[in-house]
Amino acid sequence: MDTQSAGGEMTGKGRVVMLVDNKVDGDSRVQKAAESAAAAGWDVTLLGLVRTGKGRSWKLGDAEVRLLPLKAPLAKRHAERHRSLLRRPLAYPPGPIAAYRRQWAKAWRADVATRRAALKVAPKAVGTPLFRRVEGVRLRVAGPVSNIVQRWVGLRSRHSTAAQLAGRRLRGPLDRLFTAAWTAVKGKRAWRRLEPALWDYELTYGPEIDALKPDLIHANDFRMLGVGARATVRARAAGRSVKLVWDAHEFLPGVRPWEDNAHWIPGNTAHESEYAPYADAVVTVSEGLSDLLIERHGLTERPTVVLNAPDRPADAEAHAVTRVTADGEPEPTPDLRELCGIGPDVPLIVYSGSPGPQRGLGDLVETLPKLDGVHIAFVVPNPTSAYMETLLARAAELGAGDRLHTVPYVPHWQVVRFLSAADAGCIPIHHWPNHEIALITKFFEYSHARLPLVVSDVRTMSEVTRSTGQGEVFTAEDTDDLARAIKQVLADPEPYRAVYDKPGLLDAWTWEAQAEVLDELYSTLVTDRKKSEPRP
């Protein structure tokens, strides 16, 4: 039913609660979905999280954003909570005991050394002659014994450290056996043993969702699918009809997990498989991913494709004027070249997006010595991260440290204008299942910035790039071929840019077009729900 004010006046199409397992900043798809849905007349609350500190809230257009503080005690692995006799039988139990024992052994050794010295330099202060003779005997024994004890404690401490590390990595044969056993016994429910940290998300988000009493829940990606499904079940059990939209951003079995361990993929895919049937509609980012989801989950209806497209550039520029600073002034778009400290005539290649070895940023760095005078800008969430520092150090080793720049993200409505200052946009990603099946966000952002593209030969993006003629394709992980492609687009960029003048090419690659698809889906689901509700 429509959302009502306190006086009963209709104020919107319905209440939508969007769920995402991040801090919202930097997630342009989620931000645009929330803002555009609110602009279309939905009462939108977007729930995200913070992993440290207190939660906060703000407005994103007419949508409300709330960040919830995530408490994650269930994220601690078994080895971090219990002693592992099979993994490292000599290890101390988890906790402070290993540090205590090491310090205690050091203190004993220091005491023995001090007492020995005191017998030599201040015997009368030690005690009577008889006591000194007894003390001397004790110290002759205590010296080697304390040394042995210290070595033993050190050995056990090293075993403790190794056990904790192995327990967090979960890569060993015991971990694989544990995974196989629980998967065989519990099937789709095995995630409760393999990834119990998923309950931490449930306990953080669940009460907030229940209090909001949504008409529709939009769950982004696999962790939030379970949270949204359980909230939907609770609402329906309480007599309220709620619709669940699952927005699958990636093909989970093809993800390279941030935790490369034996539990992560099996646990999270089991969780996804258990709750996928609860979704009333599935949204995803490409037709290729739609095919995989249909096959994996036996979906009876084809997922709705909502591309990771940017705001229409002209509209984005007009919209940006309405964004004001605390002083009430229009919020300016930063100048990419100014942040890099270079002038307008310096060749500049840009990569914009999340960093990582599988995304090919290291390959771009390795091409710098082959690209005389060319600068590269990495637009990333955290320009000072350890990984970015590693890339900067490598560029310095190659003698090109002054030609690599790391700069922070800008708000999603500024991205296109920000990137347009570059001469070409690069997507050097490696061959991973999820990289093959979709046109990713930066592809659309570069296109609307009218940049010539340099993309690796991952299937979907290379096919589109070749068919449109908007860039060059190179062999993934081949730095010589990457350098060749960059030189080619820089030598004559105009033919690539001219492709964007083709009528209709960019029109479908806008968020405005995708927002209409999402709004229509919401409206259909809520209308179907209203038709199915019994009349009073």
Note down, in words, how this protein is organized:
The structure is a single chain. The chain is α/β, with parallel strands linked by helices and 536 residues long. Helices cover 48% and strands 13% of the residues. It is built from 22 helices and 14 strands. It has helices spanning 28-39, 78-81, 97-121, 123-126, 129-169, 173-186, 191-194, 198-212, 221-237, 264-275, 287-297, 313-321, 336-340, 361-367, 386-397, 415-419, 433-436, 441-448, 459-468, 479-491, 494-498, 511-532; strands at 15-19, 43-50, 56-60, 63-69, 216-220, 243-248, 281-284, 304-305, 348-352, 375-380, 404-408, 424-427, 453-456, 471-474. The strands form 2 sheets. It has an 8-stranded mixed beta sheet with strand order 3-4-2-1-5-6-7-8, with helices on both faces. The protein has a 6-stranded parallel beta sheet with strand order 11-10-9-12-13-14, with helices on both faces. Strand 10, helix 15 and strand 11 form a beta-alpha-beta unit. Helix 3 runs antiparallel to helix 5 (129-169). The radius of gyration is 30 Å and the shape is globular. The two termini are 13 Å apart. Residues 3-10 and 315-322 have low confidence and may be disordered.
